[in-house]
Automatic annotation (TrEMBL):
<feature type="domain" description="N-acetyltransferase">
    <location>
        <begin position="1"/>
        <end position="141"/>
    </location>
</feature>
<keyword id="KW-0808">Transferase</keyword>
<dbReference type="InterPro" id="IPR000182">
    <property type="entry name" value="GNAT_dom"/>
</dbReference>
<protein>
    <submittedName>
        <fullName>Protease synthase and sporulation negative regulatory protein PAI 1</fullName>
        <ecNumber>2.3.1.-</ecNumber>
    </submittedName>
</protein>
<comment type="similarity">
    <text>Belongs to the acetyltransferase family. RimI subfamily.</text>
</comment>
<dbReference type="GO" id="GO:0008233">
    <property type="term" value="F:peptidase activity"/>
</dbReference>
<dbReference type="Pfam" id="PF00583">
    <property type="entry name" value="Acetyltransf_1"/>
</dbReference>
<dbReference type="GO" id="GO:0006508">
    <property type="term" value="P:proteolysis"/>
</dbReference>
<keyword id="KW-0378">Hydrolase</keyword>
<dbReference type="InterPro" id="IPR006464">
    <property type="entry name" value="AcTrfase_RimI/Ard1"/>
</dbReference>
<keyword id="KW-0963">Cytoplasm</keyword>
<keyword id="KW-0645">Protease</keyword>
<keyword id="KW-0012">Acyltransferase</keyword>
<dbReference type="InterPro" id="IPR050680">
    <property type="entry name" value="YpeA/RimI_acetyltransf"/>
</dbReference>
<dbReference type="InterPro" id="IPR016181">
    <property type="entry name" value="Acyl_CoA_acyltransferase"/>
</dbReference>
<dbReference type="GO" id="GO:0008080">
    <property type="term" value="F:N-acetyltransferase activity"/>
</dbReference>
């Protein structure tokens, strides 16, 4: 598997995954707009020139907002989502992003468990945030600087 930045040439494959997984998918134009911005980072994982998954982050100063995390339905539960998230967090830290936010459907227990393993904690609910079907969003935040401080402390 190869991790790399998403390219415009990847959009046809990305759109296949996006349309398969999401009730209200992003448009190809939406992805294209973000790929041209300096404050956005979109990554893909590919194998034999086939996109297996992707994720995106929008950055403002020292904060980031994860826009999407998606893995092909036939390649889920192989650790690809965790690999994408770990990579995104590491690359965000290299750009001095210290706090990362995301929203996830409250019913998406698999994604919530992944995000918790990555150090995200729930800090709110957005009522009826998602449509088709209508569902609340769980707001989650990760503070990498605090995580790093906790990891360097020694028990007394």
């Amino acid at each position: 598997m190869i991790l790399r930045e998403m390219l415009v040439d990847d959009l046809d494959q990305v759109m296949e995954i996006e349309q398969d997984l999401f009730h209200v998918p992003w448009t190809k134009e939406g992805f294209f707009t973000f790929l041209t911005r300096d404050d956005a980072m979109f990554l893909v994982v590919e194998e034999k020139e086939k996109i297996l998954g992707y994720c995106g982050l929008l950055m403002v100063l020292d904060e980031g907002d994860i826009t999407n995390v998606a893995v092909r339905r036939d390649r889920q539960k192989e650790g690809i989502g965790a690999f994408l998230m770990q990579s995104l967090i590491r690359l965000a830290a290299e750009r001095e992003v210290t706090t990362i936010h995301l929203e996830v459907r409250v019913g998406n227990e698999t994604a919530i468990r992944l995000y918790e393993r990555m150090g995200f904690t729930g800090d709110g609910i957005r009522k009826a945030y998602y449509s088709d079907p209508v569902e609340d969003a769980l707001l989650m935040t990760r503070h990498p600087v605090e995580d790093a401080l906790l990891m360097t402390r020694h028990p007394e």
